[in-house]
Amino acid sequence: xxxxxxxxxxxxxxxxxxxxxxxxxxxxxxxxxxxxxxxxxxxxxxxxxxxxxxxxxxxxxxxxxxxxxxxxxxxxxxxxxxxxxxxxxxxxxxxxxxxxxxxxxxxxxxxxxxx
Amino acid sequence: xxxxxxxxxxxxxxxxxxxxxxxxxxxxxxxxxxxxxxxxxxxxxxxxxxxxxxxxxxxxxxxxxxxxxxxxxxxxxxxxxxxxxxxxxxxxxxxxxxxxxxxxxxxxxxxxx
Lengths: 115, 113
Known about the structure:
The complex is a heterodimer of chains A (115) and B (113). Chain A has 115 residues and is mainly β. Helix content of chain A is 0%, strand content 50%. Chain A has no helices and 11 strands. Chain A has strands at residues 4-7, 10-13, 19-25, 31-38, 42-51, 54-57, 64-66, 76-78, 87-94, 105-106, 110-114. Chain B has 113 residues and is mainly beta. Chain B has no helices and 12 strands. Chain B has strands spanning 3-5, 10-14, 19-21, 24-26, 31-38, 45-50, 56-58, 64-68, 73-78, 87-95, 102-103, 107-112.
């Protein structure tokens, strides 16, 4: 049971480049989310999804797009990377939502540097 | 929107010392409260949670937290810390029925052997 898998683990981009951070879970979780973690700012929610075909914005959605075509996958797209997007990105999932009885399961993170 | 404050940014303790990490949230409605821990080089994992009932909740590894509604607080405690407790601790709050989970800025705990 792999849990939540994020790829890549590390990425360096130049300003203006685009890329997709991949997130896949094999627990049949309905709820998936993306956070960014920055020093002194904790984790901030970027986007989340409560099921296939449904996405919504979190606290800091600007500059990021998401889609949820399957239950398993929830990719995060940076269309035009900026240095302010240098961060560690975590994908997390849970079965019925953050208010349910099961915790968020986090991936191991993607460390992104934008130069 | 909810917000979470963790006033201790970095706490340094010797082994066997007692620990209390503060967490305050701002939201007037019913909330679910969580503490997550991130050990060095690892991803976040749940330490404990409060949904309802007994305001004193016990989690893994001897941690506990007390929900004090009148103070909007959910402080984390452990009577005697170990070197292996060195980690970053995050408090999080979710408004009941909402799909957002808001995290605090985290408290880094360093335990000196």
